[in-house]
Every structure is written in C-alpha cells, then in structure tokens.
User: Fold this.
Amino acid sequence: MGTQMTNRTGANAPAPAIVRLDGAGKAFGPVKALDHVDLLISPGECLGLVGHNGAGKSTLVNLITGLFAPSQGRVDYPGAEGPLAAGIRAISQEGTLCPNLTVLENLSVVQRDLTGPGWRARAAGRIGRALDAVFPGHRIRPEALVHDMTLAEQQMVEIAIGFSEGATPARLVVLDEPTSSLDASIAAQLLAHVRRFCAEGGAVVFISHMMGEIFDVATRIVVMRDGRNIADRPADAFTRQSLVDAMGHVAADDHSDSSAATAPRNLGDRAKAILRTPEGIEARKGEIVGLAGLAGHGQAEALARFYLSQSSDWRGAADPRAAFVAGDRRRDGVMPVWSIRRNLSLAMLDRLTRSGLIDQHRETEIGESWRKRIGIRTPDMGNPILSLSGGNQQKALFARALATTAPVIVMDDPMRGVDIGTKTEVYEMIRQEAAQGRTFLWYSTEMDEIRNCDRVFVFRDGAISAELEGDQITEENVLAASFEFGETAA
Amino acid sequence: MTRLINPRLALPVLSLVVLIVAVFWLQPRAMSYVGINLLFNLAVPIALATIAQMIIIMVNDIDLSMGAFVSLAACITAAILPVNPALGVLLLAGCVLAYAALGALIEIRQLPAIVVTLGMSFVWGGAAVLILPSPGGTAPGWLVWLMKSKPPLFPMAIVASVLIATVAHLLIMRSSFGVRLRALGGNARAVSRSGRSTVALRASAYGLAGIFAVLSGMALVGLTTSGDANIALRYTLLSIAGVILGGGEFTGGRISPVGAVIGALTLTLAGSFLSFLRLSPDWQIGAQGAILILVLAARLLVRQAEKRA
Assistant:
C-alpha cells in the first residue's frame, strides 16, 4: 500500500507525458488535414476526441500512432524511441484483424515476441486474460477463426488485443468508434474497463459519435474543427450545447449562408413524393434532397441500394430512371484510358446508338455542347480524361449523369477533393436542373453543400435520425442529429 | 482439436474417397501395394507444386510460371546435378533466391503477380531449354532410389504425400512464421501497421514456394529418370486447380495445406479414373475439367447452404 502511495505521488508531480505534439501538422498535397496542433497526453488521462467529418481526428490519431510523419512541427514520445516502444496501440475503424487467422494468431501478428516453442499457449493466455478483463463473461475462444465470428465479437477481439499484456505494456490505447457494433451492455463493460485502465495509470484516446460515452469516460475533451484543436478543456467544463457550438462554425454566418443558398421553393404537397426508399428517404419532383451525417453511417449504402433498384443488371436503358454521380472517382467514376468525350457519353450510349453502332457525329456534338454548358477546361474533348484536373474530371462525370434523361440524379459525395470554384459552378448547375424538374439525391459530408438542399435526412448508425426542411437546415441541427447524446450530456 | 475436423476439408476428402471407390470398382486389381503406388506415383511432384502454388495464393498472388519453373528445376536436376553436384546445388539454390527476389520486387513496386510470373515463365522456359536442349539427362542415383523405394505397409507415394502434408501443415498453419505469412494474405495493412516489413514477408513466401517447386522438379526427375524442358508445363494449371480443389480460396489467405495435397491426389486419380473408363485421351482433358467443375459447384452449394443457416 505504501509503495503504491509513493508511486502515485511520484507520477502526479511532473507526470512525464506519453506523447507530446508540438505545433504538429500534416498536409496532403495542398490540403491541410491538420494544422499546428499542440497536445499533451499524460498517464491517467482519458481524452475524448470529437469533431465532424474531415475535422482532422483520424489524421491526429495517425500522427500519434506514428503511421504518418508530421509535415510540420514535432511528435515526441518522452522516454521512448517510437510509438511502438512507447506502448501506443490503436484500434481503428477500418479493422486491423486478419479474418483468415484465429484470435490468438491475430495477437501474434501484432506482438512480435510471440515466436518460438510454446508461442501458441502464451498467446492464448494473453488474449484470454485480456478478454476476461475487458469483457467478463465473453464466450470467445482464442482458437476461434475470426472469419466465423460476429461483427461484435470481432470488435471485442480487436479491443482486447489493444489492451492485452505484451513485451511493451500498453500505455496509450486509441479507440476509434470502439462501440460501433457492440450492444449497450458490452459497451458498458468497455467503458468500465477504460476507466479502470486510466485509474491504473494508462491513457486512452476515445473517439465516438455517442456523446453519452464521451461524457461517461473522458476526463478531458478535445474538439477538432478544420484541422485545428479548437477547444481543450476538462470534460465537466462542457455541456451538450457548448460541445455542439464548439464543433460547428459561428452561428451567425450559418444563417446568412443558408438563406442565400436556397430560398424556400414551392415543391407542392409532401404526399406527392416521386420516390420513397425503404430507409425512409422521400423526394418530390424537382427537389434537392440531402443525405447528411457522419461518413460511413449508411448514406452511401442507401443511395447505392436505391440506384441499383432503379436499374437493371442485364441491359442498359435509353431512358434510365436514375443516373449516378460517383464520389470516389477512381473506383466508381472515370474510365481512365478513355477520352473525355467517351467518359461523358457513357451513360447515354443507348440513345446514341443507331443500328448497333455509335453515332459519332452526335456524340461529338453532345460532348461539345456539354463542354460549354458545364465549363470543362480542355481544348479538345478527345483528350484522355486523366489530362483534366480532379475538378474538371468531376464536371465530366456530372455531365455524364445530366446528359441522360433520368428524372432522378443520385450523387455519392461528388465534391470530394474539388476546388471551391468548381463547386460553386456545379451548385448553380444543380439548382438550374432542379428548377426544370429534376430530382437530386445528394449525399454530402460537407455542411456548405447540405445548405443547398431543400430537405435533409441525417443518418446515424444506418438509419435516419432527423429530417430537416427549409430553415431547420442548420449546422447545429445536423450536428445534433449526427451525434448521439446520452442523458449525462443533457 | 477442432482443426482436425475442419469442415472445409470435408468436401476435398469426400471427392477423393468417391474417386478411389470408383477406381477400385472399375479395376479391383488396383487395390494392392503396387497398384496404389502406380495410381498415386505421379501425385508426389504435383503435390509439391500444389503446396508451392498454395503459398503464393496464400499471399493473394497467383503464379503462372509454376510449370516452367518446375521444368527448369527438373532440367537442372537431370542435366547438371549428376555431373557436377556442387554446381547443381548452387543453381537450384539460385532458383530459390530468384523466386524470393521476385516476391520482393512484386511487393516493392506493387506489381501484379500474374503479369510478373507470366513474364518469368518465358525466362524459366528459356533457361530450361538452354540447360537441356533435347529431352535426356539422367536422374541422380540417390534420387531414383528414394522415389522408387518400397517402405513396408504403405507405398512410397502415400508415405510421401502424408509427409508433405504434415510438413506443410506444421510450417504454414502451426508455426509463427507461417501465421505471419498468412496474415499478409488476410490483411496486409494490419501487418505493416504492426511494424513488420511486408517486403521481407512476401519475399519469404516466394522463397518458400521456390523451395517446394524445386523439390517438385527433383521428385519428378526421380520418377521419370530423365528431364525435358517441357516436362511439367501442365503443372501451372494443375497446381492452381489442386489448391482450389483442396478448399483454398484465391484471396484472403484462406488455404489448407492438407487440402492442397488431397486436391493434388484427386487430380492425379481423376486421370487414372478416366483411363480406366477407356475414355479416348482426346476427351480426357475435357473430362478432367468437368470433374473439377463438378467439385467446385458442390462447394459453392455447400457455402450457400452454410450462409443461409
């Protein structure tokens, strides 16, 4: 008992930090993902990290775990050579398990000392004890194949690997949305363990869209916005309201922007919806419907399901019922070796075809007219699409969808990585097309774009958590619906 | 212990048993020490090549040069090893190192393995012709003795197959080295995030595959007692078919060494089965393909039933 006391006071006095960021920043090309962040994480702390999409949370985590080197400033691990030696472990959202391995084999991938005779027994012991400590009453065998386990069990294993004993003990564990597939009772076990771990001198960085959990475990909350550390205070200095305010931009420009973007339009009775999806998305003719919320909460899946239900797997159609604008250009959008013109005419080939052959004269005409209408900056539409800048490639993809006769245009966060000038031009185009009676389903992670919508559905955990219309479309309302607030926050 | 009754192995074992029963029914005289040895003799080099291919598939690649490489190893074994053992061993070791270097190259430059190995297949083929311009050469005496020895109780072909399956299982499924290699196929990002070199791992996987492929070429020469630059060209597709037949998958590092050996045995037996049916050799390749499609279709149905359950 006595030694424990001295340990305590010894650690309390000048507590050496586990990680120290000194004006750290990270740029990807011209995009500044993280800008001059100072941060100190000491033993015993549980840091809640909150912020909207693109606020820089994951970049910050990647700097802490050493995955990225900072492009400005410094990241130090006092008393250790690197993040691994400093005992920094991370559980990321993307999943770091190998599904073809068993639970104990997955531990040996991360812990390098698990080799030589008897490594299986040692690994089974470590992971078993970690699972027992974090999730008492779990029913996961160390010999089970990860592929055969449920999503929740996989997440539990990942967390247990983060907390398990090893050659270098865990000192700082980063948990990025750790409860996304856990049910409430299992999540409560995790939160209890986080508190226990921190009380014993460990540190945790906790990222969650469930504000209740953040208030439950965090001793300190850091709010990120636009790559900056906006607020860094003890958890009890925040209320639900002050957190939302800190995450959003200043409320005043919020309002002026929204009235400038879209004056309420007369779209007729809400019962006259021309489309309804199983998730509950509705749209009227000529309406711009936004899908908002944190990235990865089911918006893209809802759009893809709707679009695929409107198109046939077997044949193209001269008059498609919906057209798709991809956000991930390289994966879903451009045909990289084709010309701009070919890329543009792809969705309307069935209209350009005459007795089985493409009418090249008309194709050229259409290409030329869209080049002027949407302003694709190229001397010749016959140039390869990759000769264009990202923004102009995206314009060509917009033109591909708009050139069809489809009454509904589905857009999967199409403005990712597009410059502001192009954005403004495309917003204008969308408004014009909507005025002529086209309907837009628009998933966007950016608030500026959501303000262009007539109606917004906010997604959380794969379901719609709020439906906003007209004046209700404010950053505050979208934020409030994107994050889940527990009782403790209110 | 659950590993021993792996459900993924059920189908490969079942197909092999069905074929064995069919062969014995058609030709009861095959049910003897000599008969079984004759049936499975040629399966030994195929099993080794299948294990080599399995290791490549395990790291999410595919090797289209397997046949040419095994032929090259066979040519070195037949033409150089008996005359100049030191040079022969050196060349074979060089082949393995070249394979490891290919793995490193594929990882460093992020090249598609299918292209690299297809290109290399012409290099291996050319080297084999240079070493042995016309079929010939002799097998080293010790190799012939080994391949044609008659252990008590079980014929050599069976003993060798069990040995290959056991060694590969211990190496790939049980050792921590094998786990790291399989992790590369399962989630390469997880491996690199844990601070391990994916280049070293892919190079070791290719090097290990090279060792099994060289052993395959040597075993083949031990059986045929002479070499030929085209001796094993069929092995490329046979080895891929063997891996898949044995319950392996093309992506995700999900493979089974025991299944791969069983797959190789099944493929060899399918050839004999068709001969016993007195099927014209013109039709045999097609019929072999039909057997393959049958087994894979059965696997698909089992998977779907599992998913629904």
